Amino acid sequence: MDRKEGVGGKMNFLDLKFFILFMWILVMTACIFIIFVIAPISKFQIDQNEPLSFLKTSFIQATLAVIIVGILIIVLNKFKKIYLLKKLSGKKIS
Predict the structure, then answer these.
(1) Which top-level group of life is the source organism from (predicted)?
(2) Cα angle for residues 81, 85, 86 (degrees, 5° grid)
(3) Most buried residue among 8, 9, 29, 86 by CB atoms closer than 10 A?
C-alpha cells in the first residue's frame, strides 16, 4: 500500500465524517427550533378560553413544523448531491 493512497483514503473518510457531522448539526438545529420556538407558540394565545383558538394555534404549529421539515429535506438532499458530485468527479465544486 502506497503512503499517498493511505493518506488519501483517510482524507476521504474525514470528508465523510465532516459531511455526516454537518448533516446532524442541521437536523439538530431544526429540532431545537421546532421544540423551543414553534412549540411554545400556544403560550402566546390572545384568548385562552376560546376552544377554536387552540385549533388555530395547533394548525399554525403543525404547518410551520411541516414547512421546516420540508426545507430541511430539500437542504439535506442538495448537500448530498453536492457531496456525491464532488466525490464522483474528484473535483471541488464551488
Answers:
(1) Archaea
(2) 115
(3) 86
In whole angstroms, what is the distance from residue 74 CA to residue 68 CA? 10
pLDDT tens digit sequence for 5-48: 444 555 566 788 888 899 999 999 999 999 999 888 877 776 66
3-state secondary structure string across 29-83: HHHHHHHHHHHHHHHHCCCCCCHHHHHHHHHHHHHHHHHHHHHHHHHHHHHHHHH
The phi and psi torsions of 53 (rounded to 5 degrees) equal: -65, -35
The 3-state DSSP class for residue 15 equals helix
* 19, three cell numbers: 459531511
Q: Are 87 and 94 in contact (CB under 8 A)?
A: no
Please state the pTM of the whole predicted model. 0.70
Cell 438545529 sits on residue: 29
